[in-house]
Amino acid sequence: MEYLIVKWLHIISSTFLFGTGIGSAWYLLFAVISNNVRAIAVVSRIVVIADWTFTATTMIAQPLTGFYLIHLAGFPMNSRWIVWSIALYVIAGLCWLPVVWLQMKLRDLSAQAADQDTALPPLFWRYFKAWVVLGIPAFFAFLAIFYLMVAKPA
């Protein structure tokens, strides 16, 4: 029974991790596309809160539950699917850390522009482009991790 509980926690936390990431990216992307500075300020503020509430906690829960599942199931740590999953998780994490910083900068710049009733500054657009560029490999890394977790290829 312990294995099922840990597996359930692992699946739930991966759902929160990926779901928050995809949802946050979707809403921020379309807020920015709208070019409505006030909407961008509101959405970016909420995205930062969601990232700290859900993504940060599940980024910690995932490896804890994952390594415990490996232990409980008796999988060798050097299994190719485990090694690849860990490597892809590290890549996604290395993308996420600057993304969080960028989101806080996007939040601050858009809030300032909304308060001053001005257009978004060029720095906002540079940060936004970097945010998009970093989100792409993280997205595909997580898709691959989901495949590896389900298929566990030899």
Polypeptide structure, described:
The chain is mainly alpha-helical and 154 residues long. It has one domain. The chain contains 4 helices and no strands. It has helices at 2-34, 37-73, 80-116, 122-151. It is elongated. The protein starts with a helix and ends with a helix. The mean pLDDT is 96.
How would you summarize the topology of this molecule?
Blueprint: H1 2-34, H2 37-73, H3 80-116, H4 122-151
Helix pairs in contact: 1-2, 2-3, 3-4
Which key terms come to mind for this protein?
154 residues; mainly alpha; 0% strand; elongated
In short:
This protein has 154 residues and is mainly alpha-helical. The chain has helices at residues 2-34, 37-73, 80-116, 122-151.
Shape: elongated
Low-confidence runs of at least 5 consecutive residues: none
What is the gyration radius calculated from CA atoms? 18 Å
Total count of domains: 1
What would you call the structural class? mainly alpha
Q: Which sheet architecture does the biggest sheet show?
A: none
Strand content: under 5%
Provide a count of the helices.
4
Order of helices and strands: HHHH
Distance between the termini: 26 Å
Number of strands: 0
Amount of helix: over 70%
Mean pLDDT: 96
